[in-house]
Amino acid sequence: MAITGKVVLVTGASSGIGAATARKLAAEGLKVGLAARRGDRLEALASDIINAGGEAIALQTDVTDPASCKAAVQRLITEFGRIYILINNAGLMPLSDVDALKVDEWQRMVDVNISGVLNATAAALPFMIERKSGHIFTLSSIAGRKVFKGLAVYCATKAAITAFSDALRMEISPKHSIRVTCIQPGAVKSELYEQITDANYRKQMNDLEKSMTFLQGEDIAETILFALKAPDRMDVAELFVMPTEQGW
Ligand code: NDP
Hints:
The protein has seven helices and seven strands, in the order βαβαβαβαβαβααβ. The chain is α/β, with parallel strands linked by helices.
């Protein structure tokens, strides 16, 4: 499908996979809305994209707040005329054991990883239904397919959005011609591990990074591009993307 000029909202665009995807899609000629909380990062990325000849707008957004998501979508539409693609990418992964009872971290994961996806989807969906076209991506994880110690709540949130994405596809794809894609990566080099407050798990993740070559954000951006460029008749419903060296 031709994608040049299409309008996309990327949540979690201030770093990692989201920033790499925003750069890649802008380079492909898409108009990109950059959503996250760190406005300075978004402004810097928007400037980079514009200086490289692309189109982008920084939209400071907290995905845990439905009104903030609605405002971001509304501003994107005011600026670029419509929204065609939503990339539900914002997420957190502070690892810890359940008996450490880091309940504030559990709640933040539920708020960002699950509610954030629902809020952004609810904000964008009416405009896609109105046009009977669109594409909603959700960044789940290998952790949405299997469970790991230390990731109980994270796995639960990713399993939840994997389920949501598939049911969303069944409901809206045939009815409204909106495609739905769930991306499930293994380990990707990003800032995700910097939020780990548990010293043992932080060390474990640092050791893991030394022991194998992680994917780069650009690899996931390429994956998203593949699904986006597929012919209209084809919905890439799920993509499980692993580092070659990740044998688990
Ligand atoms: P990063 O930590 O680099 O990026 C996370 C992004 O989420 C940041 O841009 C952050 O921006 C944003 N974010 C966090 N909270 C909020 C919020 N309340 N509102 C809006 N944005 C928010 O990690 P990744 O790029 O690795 O992660 C992107 C996605 O990919 C996540 O959903 C993650 O679970 C998933 N994933 C990552 C893997 C990996 O190994 N890295 C593997 C599998 C899946 P800000 O702080 O500015 O708000």
